């Protein structure tokens, strides 16, 4: 007899409430880092979903583009940490006005984002929280849970739930493993004016998040997340021995693209920071879902890199000149 | 009695051959600039297509991600100027192996891209060609043609065909109008080390193309195409009076996003290059399709900006250090 794992109670409630409801497409709608954390779920649906189409939009693009496919058979998943992002709050009522069902992820219960949403998932955040209850984890529980409900993919769902249950242990262990490397990175790269990031597949959102949220927003360092497949069709002409590249290697099907980008960059660049998920100890995770866990661990290690970089540059990650300070 | 316009003969042949075939989704597959020129068509399908889903992938991501939705009811549209891009050539046979129908756009008949494709569209390119037979024009003729065939949207199709017929006239007139501005841009920005580009909606691909193909590839200037909606969720912290931003304003539904990015940038930045499609004379174009023509004109004007910049920097647009020169 096998014990069946279930998702977090909140996610489980959504999945049960959706039983029997037709879902033609899932639309991921958020801004910045909250959008980036949905990229792995879009990849997962592309790989696994046989009956559900999916797409991903920045919140205001979603509202103004007003895709025709948005309708009563749409499930719109939105996210905002504080639940106050005006575009994402507006996207909830917009989606509902088209008859769609909405699931809002936020850290703050009672925030504006939660007012109109059909379902609210309140995730944990911060040093004391457990990764099983993080935004990334809730996203996977929700989308893989949908495939379990709608397409009978319970086996993979069980493997993923079991993996997510071990996520905090893996985070803690991997942070310890990469502490020295993160310090070395911060010392070597603290004076750089531009740092590119590169990834593909399920990891691309992690590279995007590090580029726009950590480097540009929190450190005022020029950046651009280059898709590893696009690299060879323009962007690679920028590399030389003085231009820093942070290259991620995951465990998903697109790893050959990232390896190719690394191979070329190693030949013509000299300032390379490489984070390879093969160096992570993921022994608790079932082989078939390691690829989905890898970007989450890459992201957590990168947070450590960011913290060390901020310390070394005396530029705290909380420093802003415009965000929350001026009108925009 | 109204005369019915028809697409270019080659496109017309594809549309006629497709009559009666089920199409569940259209997948846009290419790399770099050839991928960027498909973004407007993805926007158009999102806005207009009621029965056809769509998605866009860089060629190698497409092959390795191997989306489940790729199948016998998929129409895969691919593009490569010289028809030799290995990933895109491989994507044709990959798509066919899944039962999909393939349409390959290329400037070179007989190139590897054309070998396995079900349909080939040979577009014109270069100074002597007419814009009606360009890659951008063929893309619109094809996707709007599909909506005419599959969803009876002949009225909009006629308006778009009529507009494309005037495209060369508009290009010529607008280049003349922007000659001085392009020269001024090249003088003012020739020594910049980084230039960001910003756009949204139907114009985003144009900003992406200018960032990765012109600035990074052809001029070795750091760049990153920032989505105007994402700008306020990280990237905007990078702007100050010394950081150059090229901001595009189009005529589509997402213009408010671009206007907001411009308003903020005008307040905190001083090096702004603004290209506003409202300044174009598009009097030949029907009001309802102007938004789709605008990005094509923006792109052509930006080519002029690129040419002037290359002259001023004594760095020809054809200069490469890696592309076509080394193994990658």
Automatic annotation (TrEMBL), chains A, B:
Superkingdom as given in the UniProt entry: Bacteria
Pfam family, one: SIS
Protein's GO biological process: fructose 6-phosphate metabolic process; protein N-linked glycosylation; UDP-N-acetylglucosamine metabolic process
EC number: 3.5.-.-
The keyword Nucleotide-binding belongs to this UniProt entry's keyword annotation: no
The keyword 4Fe-4S is annotated on this UniProt entry: no
GO molecular-function terms, A-Z: carbohydrate derivative binding; glutamine-fructose-6-phosphate transaminase (isomerizing) activity; hydrolase activity
Assigned keywords, A-Z: Carbohydrate metabolism, Hydrolase
Domain called SIS: residue spans: 14-152
Function (record text): Catalyzes the conversion of a range of fructosamine 6-phosphates to glucose 6-phosphate and a free amino acid.
Assembly: Homooctamer.
Designated name of the protein: Fructosamine deglycase
Organism in which the protein naturally occurs: Scopulibacillus darangshiensis
């Amino acid at each position: 007899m096998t014990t069946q794992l279930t998702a977090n109670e909140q996610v489980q409630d959504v999945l049960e409430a959706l039983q029997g409801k037709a879902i033609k497409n899932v639309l991921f709608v958020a801004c910045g880092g909250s959008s980036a954390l949905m990229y792995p779920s879009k990849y997962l649906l592309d790989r696994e979903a046989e009956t559900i189409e999916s797409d991903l939009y920045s919140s205001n693009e979603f509202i103004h583009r007003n895709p025709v496919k948005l309708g009563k058979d749409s499930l719109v998943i939105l996210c905002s940490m504080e639940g106050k992002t005006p575009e994402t709050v507006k996207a909830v009522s917009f989606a509902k006005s088209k008859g769609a069902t909405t699931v809002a992820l936020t850290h703050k219960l009672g925030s504006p984002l939660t007012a109109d949403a059909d379902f609210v998932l309140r995730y944990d955040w911060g040093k004391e929280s457990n990764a099983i209850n993080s935004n990334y984890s809730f996203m996977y529980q929700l989308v893989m849970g949908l495939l379990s409900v709608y397409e009978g993919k319970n086996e993979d769902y069980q493997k993923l739930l079991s993996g997510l249950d071990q996520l905090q242990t893996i985070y803690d262990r991997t942070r310890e493993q990469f502490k020295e490397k993160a310090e070395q990175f911060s010392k070597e790269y603290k004076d750089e004016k531009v740092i590119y990031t590169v990834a593909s597949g399920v990891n691309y959102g992690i590279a995007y998040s590090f580029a726009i949220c950590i480097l540009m927003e929190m450190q005022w360092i020029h950046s651009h997340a280059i898709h590893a497949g696009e690299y060879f069709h323009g962007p690679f002409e920028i590399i030389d021995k003085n231009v820093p590249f942070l290259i991620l290697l995951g465990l998903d099907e697109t790893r050959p693209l990232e390896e190719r980008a690394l191979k070329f960059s190693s030949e013509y660049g000299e300032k390379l920071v490489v984070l390879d998920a093969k160096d992570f100890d993921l022994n608790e995770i079932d082989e078939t879902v390691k690829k989905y866990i890898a970007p989450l661990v890459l992201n957590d290690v990168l947070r450590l890199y960011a913290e060390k970089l901020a310390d070394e540059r005396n530029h705290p990650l909380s420093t802003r000149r415009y965000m929350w300070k001026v009108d925009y």
